[in-house]
UniProtKB/TrEMBL annotation:
Keywords: Transcription, Transcription regulation. InterPro entries: Homeodomain-like_sf, MT1864/Rv1816-like_C, Tet_transcr_reg_TetR-rel_C_sf. It comes from Alteromonas arenosi. Residues 88-188 form the HTH-type transcriptional regulator MT1864/Rv1816-like C-terminal domain. It comes from the Bacteria. This is TetR-like C-terminal domain-containing protein.
Length: 205
């Protein structure tokens, strides 16, 4: 029989999320389930449903903490690198390194799908916006003549490319060409993209 009332809500939430994170340190989310989590923490599955409403929301809470850790890794680079171009290179490298260090947690952030009709909660959207703001701020620092809408589009485009290189690195697809590695590809991407960005004028590039 599952234990009840052993933890207050905050303690219970920490217990659950820490256990899921520990599991994802070693194995992918595809091997995890609500019932398995309940068994690991010694509670009935119904307690998890009562707390998180559904399995998807529990995973979204895990993803939020992963993004918090990612931001905690990237944010200090704003002070370390005052030059926006150097900072962007550092952010890209740190992003890839974070994903390679915690591949299952990182992958869950992007593979997790919300149930049909469910919108991304504000607290999760805020975290996503923070990540892209780091990139957009670097672009603005390099060229403030481009308007905010185009800057955000370019930040999304650029980071989608960084994300793709990171994904290939995790899938070990880069080993098909022994002359390349993720960091070299990131530098090549940024070198070429930023060359055009720094010379951009007006509202459109």
């Amino acid at each position: 029989m599952g234990r009840r009332n052993d933890h207050n809500p905050e303690e219970f939430n920490e217990l659950v999320l820490t256990q899921v994170e520990e599991f994802l340190t070693h194995l992918p989310a595809s091997q995890l389930s609500l019932r398995k989590v309940a068994k690991m923490i010694g509670y009935a599955p119904s307690t998890l449903i009562h707390t998180y409403k559904n399995w998807s929301m529990l995973l979204l809470k895990v993803n939020a903490r992963t993004l918090d850790r990612l931001m905690a890794t990237l944010t200090p680079l704003e002070q370390k690198f005052t030059d926006p171009e150097q900072r962007l290179y550092a952010i890209a490298e740190a992003y890839c390194a974070f994903a390679c260090k915690q591949p299952h947690l990182w992958t869950l952030v992007f593979e997790h799908k919300l149930p049909a009709g469910m919108d991304i909660p504000d607290w999760m959207q805020h975290r996503i916006n923070q990540l892209f703001s780091l990139v957009a701020n670097c672009l603005t620092g390099m060229n403030s003549q481009v308007n905010a809408e185009q800057t955000l589009l370019s930040a999304n485009t650029l980071w989608a490319s960084v994300h793709g290189i990171t994904l290939l690195a995790l899938d070990d697809k880069l080993s098909l060409n022994t002359n390349t590695n993720p960091n070299e590809m990131l530098v090549d991407l940024l070198d070429n993209y930023l060359l055009a960005w720094k010379s951009a004028q007006g509202e459109k590039r």
